[in-house]
UniProtKB/TrEMBL annotation, chain A:
Keywords: Electron transport, Membrane, Mitochondrion, NAD, Respiratory chain, Translocase, Transmembrane, Transmembrane helix, Transport, Ubiquinone. The chain crosses the membrane at residues 21-41, 61-80, 92-110, 116-133, 145-167, 193-216, 223-244, 256-277, 284-303, 309-330, 351-369, 389-412. Core subunit of the mitochondrial membrane respiratory chain NADH dehydrogenase (Complex I) which catalyzes electron transfer from NADH through the respiratory chain, using ubiquinone as an electron acceptor. Essential for the catalytic activity and assembly of complex I. Belongs to the complex I subunit 4 family. It catalyses: a ubiquinone + NADH + 5 H(+)(in) = a ubiquinol + NAD(+) + 4 H(+)(out). It is a multi-pass membrane protein. InterPro entries: NADH4_N (IPR000260), NADH_Q_OxRdtase_chainM/4 (IPR010227), NADH_UbQ_OxRdtase (IPR003918), ND/Mrp_TM (IPR001750). One of its GO terms (biological process) is ATP synthesis coupled electron transport. GO terms for cellular component: mitochondrial membrane. Residues 112-397 form the NADH:quinone oxidoreductase/Mrp antiporter transmembrane domain. This is NADH-ubiquinone oxidoreductase chain 4. It is found in: Mitochondrion membrane.
UniProtKB/TrEMBL annotation, chain B:
InterPro entries: Complex_I_Subunit_2 (IPR050175), NADH_DH_su2_C (IPR010933), NADH_UbQ_OxRdtase_chain2 (IPR003917), ND/Mrp_TM (IPR001750). Belongs to the complex I subunit 2 family. It is found in: Mitochondrion inner membrane. The chain crosses the membrane at residues 5-21, 27-45, 57-76, 96-115, 151-171, 202-221, 233-254, 274-294, 322-345. The keyword Transferase does not apply. It is a multi-pass membrane protein. The gene is ND2. One of its GO terms (cellular component) is mitochondrial inner membrane. This is NADH-ubiquinone oxidoreductase chain 2. It comes from Equus asinus. Core subunit of respiratory chain NADH dehydrogenase (Complex I) which is composed of 45 different subunits. Interacts with TMEM242. Core subunit of the mitochondrial membrane respiratory chain NADH dehydrogenase (Complex I) which catalyzes electron transfer from NADH through the respiratory chain, using ubiquinone as an electron acceptor. Essential for the catalytic activity and assembly of complex I.
């Protein structure tokens, strides 16, 4: 595991020691190389996990998330080049250092064996993200956004710390590899109900669950592009990953404790999808669509069947790539018009046809078109929730329809129709932007050829 | 102040605390406290203005009262045990009175009212000595009598201190008052774990002293006592802004910085002793502290406050020398991976 962690840590000295014209080239190249190394983790030979040491392990759930994390760093660096071009050199280097630090913490979080170490690194990802959002965001609202982000997550996760320590007292060890064989039913008592709540709330806030999602539109909208990408693609999946790991210890309370959260998620996915139809702000639309997709993941994790776990994992990876790509597309609009209002830049297909192709592909994968992995994820979740309770098919069906509605609304508003007259002097698409979109889309399309690598550990 | 006099006075302060920490006779401990108190009054009044006089008067009154309460507790202890050795306190009344006296010296709620006012009235360097060195002596006595302390009183005072430290600091813009309320909250954390595992009290004291030292050194370097003047540091010494950011987040107890270590260890120790609600409550209330630290970082490092055009041309006075800042910064932010080395504090 150190073969990935140490190079990522060394990205920080690399940025500080690079010459002015080489910082982007150096960091992007080396982070791409690191992502190629991480691909080797996808080779999971037996039915259990790859244990690298006492502290790090990777199993079929964390390996795809890890590959996604390392794949996104070069993409984030490519996406940030334009808005940082006018900044002094030291600030550029600080930004890249923040991204590299965040990357290190994320890699260590996904491969942590000991649950307290997972917790510390989970919290540690907050600091670089807060700095990126509040220091490099663009509007005044970013201060409020940073505070909401920090405090929502912290209030949710401090009970998790207490819960983890009390579980450690109970079982003697929080090493994940041991706990998965512990398999003892949690006795039925009031304090164990609170234990369940304490364990799950941190991840519910992070996912986010519908009632606790207020930080997400603020943070996603106010963050700069790399911040939005990493938030949408990876940090939300931290919540899903944590939930998948920790529900292993929380039976049988999950049978009845999950009901309120299932109801909130099922209703929330419809509500947030419907809000998307009424958004004027492009990034806000994509942020609410993230909430809606993650609500599906929460439903899948809470019903705890093998197919739902497969659906949750696939949906996490697919949504990571798709929403990151949507944010990049929205950013390419923002860099040209300096406004996030959707109707301000319409009819872009006439002006930027290749970008329109990327918009089309991104919107199609967002609405879960077959045979993309988004569909595989959503389909598995819909099927398993139907087997859990027949009525959910109505809500799921409605959600899929509304998702299609707002994705197409976004596509048609920005791409089709007559172009607005004030944007006919925008710069054409850079090769960097096209490369960015291609690098998002290629894994997404190629994974539909072999989805079993992203189907997680119940395959 | 004449350097010779200053040296003698500082040495007396130092000697007072040393006598408290090293004695086994209760009378010597009281003498140490009095020596410390008398010697620090001129330090607090270095700047001769009415505010400083008021601050040192308040400090003198509260500390003298506390010393007298301590003396009463010592006499009751003498009455019931017949000896002056500091081992454990033999009478519950004496123990309660002693705890209250030491809480007054430390600035725990409900005896916290002097801390913000005294800290605000004195200069930054004196405030530094007040909030770090002066806490050592009472804490060492609490450590030594920890087996006989009444748990209810101490825990109530601790939790109330964390509450008051969090809520009181929310409305402040003066940096010294912010540090005062932060000190009240940290004292609360330290005394909460005292009965269960006094080693963690020492750990928290160590890390708290390092972080507070760092913060005060950074404030002294930029000669800033209000949030507004702190927000101008990006103009004069941009590196200081990053250091302020890191240290403030560490004080707020965010992983992976070293300020998280005492909180984590304390929560662990409290949970092992089967109190679950208490550490959860304490941890959530520490977030109030984090709020006003984050607000401070917003005005200092994470945004650029508008400044007038001639800010950059402001006369650069001779840079104040900051002693020991690099090791302090490292100690107050990067010590978390060294947590297994906790056993050296036993």
């Amino acid at each position: 595991m150190l073969k990935i962690i140490i190079p990522t840590i060394m990205l920080m000295p690399l940025t500080w020691l690079s010459k002015k014209n080489m910082i982007w080239i150096n960091t992007t190249t080396y982070s791409l190389l690191i992502s190629l190394i991480s691909l080797s983790l996808l080779n999971q030979p037996n039915n259990n996990s790859l244990n690298f040491s006492l502290m790090f392990f990777s199993d079929p759930l964390s390996a795809p998330l890890l590959v996604l994390t390392t794949w996104l760093l070069p993409l984030m660096l490519m996406a940030s080049q334009h808005h940082l071009s006018k900044e002094p050199l030291i600030r550029k280097k600080l930004y890249i250092t923040m991204l590299a630090m965040l990357q290190t913490f994320l890699i260590m979080t996904f491969t942590a064996t000991e649950l307290i170490s997972f917790y510390i690194l989970f919290e540690a990802t907050l600091v670089p993200t807060l700095i990126i959002i509040t220091r490099w965001g663009n509007q005044t609202e970013r201060l409020n956004a940073g505070l909401y982000f920090l405090f929502y997550t912290l209030v949710g996760s401090l009970p998790l710390l207490v819960a983890l320590i009390s579980i450690q007292n109970l079982t003697g060890s929080l090493n994940f590899l041991l706990i998965q064989y512990w398999n003892q039913a949690l006795p039925d008592s009031w304090s164990n109900i609170f234990l369940w709540l304490a364990c799950m709330m941190a991840f519910m806030v992070k996912m986010p669950l519908y009632g606790l999602h207020l930080w997400l539109p603020k943070a996603h909208v106010e963050a700069p592009i790399a911040g939005s990408m990493v938030l949408a693609a990876i940090l939300l999946k931290l919540g899903g990953y944590g939930m998948l790991r920790i529900t292993m210890m929380l039976n049988p309370q999950t049978n009845f404790m999950a009901y309120p959260f299932l109801m909130l998620s099922l209703w929330g996915m419809i509500m947030t999808s419907s809000i998307c139809l009424r958004q004027t702000d492009l990034k806000s639309l994509i942020a609410y669509s993230s909430v809606s997709h993650m609500a599906l993941v929460i439903v899948a994790v809470l019903i705890q069947t093998p197919w739902s776990y497969m659906g949750a994992t696939a949906l996490m990876i697919a949504h990571g790539l798709t929403s990151s790509m949507l944010f990049c597309l929205a950013n390419s609009n923002y860099e040209r018009t300096h406004s996030r209002t959707m109707i301000l830049a319409r009819g872009l297909q006439t002006l930027l046809p290749l970008m329109a192709a990327w918009w089309l592909l991104a919107s199609l994968t967002n609405l879960a078109l077959p045979p993309s992995i988004n569909l595989i994820g959503e389909l598995f979740v819909v099927m398993s929730s139907f087997s859990w309770s027949n009525i959910t098919i109505i809500l799921m069906g409605a959600n899929i329809t509304i998702t299609a509605l707002y994705s197409l609304y976004m596509l048609i508003t920005t791409q089709r129709g007559k172009y607005t007259h004030h944007i006919n002097s925008i710069k054409p698409s850079f090769t960097r932007e096209n490369a960015l979109m291609a690098l998002h889309m290629t894994p997404l399309l190629l994974l539909s050829l072999n989805p079993k690598i992203i189907l997680g550990f119940t395959y | 102040m004449n350097p010779l006099i200053l040296t003698i006075i500082l040495m007396t302060v130092f000697l007072g605390t040393m006598i408290v920490m090293a004695s086994s006779h209760w009378l010597m401990i009281w003498i140490g406290f009095e020596m410390n108190l008398l010697a620090i009054i001129p330090i607090l009044m270095k700047k001769y203005n009415p505010r400083a006089m008021e601050a040192s008067t308040k400090y003198f009154l509260t500390q003298a009262t506390a010393s007298m309460l301590l003396m009463m507790a010592i006499i009751i202890n003498l009455m019931h045990s017949g000896q002056w050795t500091i081992t454990k306190v033999f009478n519950p009344t004496a123990s309660i009175i002693m705890t209250l006296a030491l809480a007054m010296k430390l600035g725990l709620t409900p005896f916290h009212f002097w801390v913000p006012e005294v800290t605000q009235g004195i200069s930054l360097t004196s405030g530094l000595i007040l909030l770090t060195w002066q806490k050592l002596a009472p804490m060492s006595i609490l450590y030594q009598i920890s087996p006989s302390i009444n748990l209810n009183i101490l825990l109530t005072m601790a939790v109330l201190s964390i509450l008051v430290g969090g809520w009181g600091g929310l409305n402040q813009t003066q940096l010294r008052k912010i540090m005062a309320y932060s000190s009240i909250a940290h004292m609360g954390w330290m005394t909460a774990i005292l009965v269960y595992n006094p080693t963690l009290t020492m750990l928290n004291m160590l890390i708290y002293i390092m972080m507070t030292l760092t913060m005060f050194m950074l404030f002294i370097h930029s000669s800033s006592t209000t949030t507004l003047s702190l927000s101008h540091t990006w103009n004069k010494a941009p590196l200081i802004t990053t250091l302020i950011l890191i240290t403030l987040l560490s004080m707020g107890g965010l992983p992976p910085l070293s300020g998280f270590m005492p909180k984590w260890m304390i929560i662990q120790e409290l949970t092992k002793n089967s109190s679950i609600i208490l550490p959860t409550l304490m941890a959530i209330m520490a977030l109030l502290n984090l709020y006003f630290y984050t607000r401070l970082t917003y005005s200092t490092s994470l945004t650029m406050f508008p400044s007038t055009n001639n800010m950059k041309m402001k006369w650069q006075f001779e840079t104040k020398q900051i002693t020991l800042l690099p090791p302090l910064i490292i100690a107050s932010s990067l010590l978390l991976p060294l947590t297994p080395m906790l056993s050296i504090l036993d």
